[in-house]
Amino acid sequence: MIVLLPPSETKRAGGDQAPLDLDALSWPVLNPLRAELVAELVTLAADPEASRRALGLSASQDGEIARNAVLRSALTLPALRRYTGVLYDALDFDSLTGAAAERARARLAVGSALFGLVRAGDPIPAYRLSAGAKLPGGRSLSARWRPVLEPVLAEISGRELVVDLRSGSYAALGRVPDAVQVEVVAERADGTRAVVSHFNKAHKGRLARALATTRAEPDDAAAVATVARRAGMRVERNGNRLTVVVAG
Are strands 241-247 and 234-238 parallel, antiparallel or unpaired? Predict the structure, then answer.
């Protein structure tokens, strides 16, 4: 089983591993586009105003542009230590030890606008590039990533179950038609439901932790739902779609 996570806009600063080496990342077939995007971001960083427009930043966020300027020389961290925020707080990868940590490293992967797809332990620098960014040249990131990323995802899903927790813009970089899809809804006291916004990431982080650490080997949506329920989550299943229901 592979659990696909979205990245976070926020990234932990610094690093304790060598600078970026694309050959050290999983799925080397993605390296040509990774190299193109790294080069484009480094070049773009020389023009802060153009960077702000392309990346959707304000002048107060110029530190993000500075990160992009040193992508090739900045120290790296394993991907699951680099990404931060609500989902990654709930996942709490750093608290895992022993066999649970090994299972998490094997099962977790992150969809990335810059790197396409990375495994938990892949060493990456801090960067700023969201799936909706509009880099010079006109083509969207989804148009550039789909031709190279979708074959990789198809090969993965052909041999093991994929649970896709990515948000819509990151899922658009590479679709996995037969993946288990997950949504989070809040149920109000009167029984009506609404899609959860802010806490959506926290509940997906809890689910990712349960799936990453279970001794079971889920091979279909029903087995994923069973793992989630054992972790105390209320889950409904409709084919390959799971709905996590929380109190509204």
Answer: antiparallel
Among the listed residues 78, 83, 107, the one whose alpha carbon sits nearest the alpha carbon of residue 213: 107
Give the per-residue pLDDT at 179. 98
pTM of the complete model: 0.95
Q: Are 206 and 156 in contact (CB under 8 A)?
A: no
Cα–Cα distance between 141 and 129 in angstroms, integer? 10
Domain ranges for the chain, please list them. 2-247
Tens of pLDDT, residues 137-179:
889 999 999 999 999 999 999 999 999 999 999 999 999 989 9
Are 173 and 131 within 8 A, CB to CB?
yes
Maximum CA extent, the chain: 55
Using only C-alpha atoms, the chain has a radius of gyration, in whole angstroms, of: 18
φ/ψ bin of 193: left (φ > 0), alpha (ψ from -120 to 50), beta (otherwise)? beta
- CB 200: neighbour CB atoms within 10 A? 21
Strands 193-195 and 234-238: unpaired
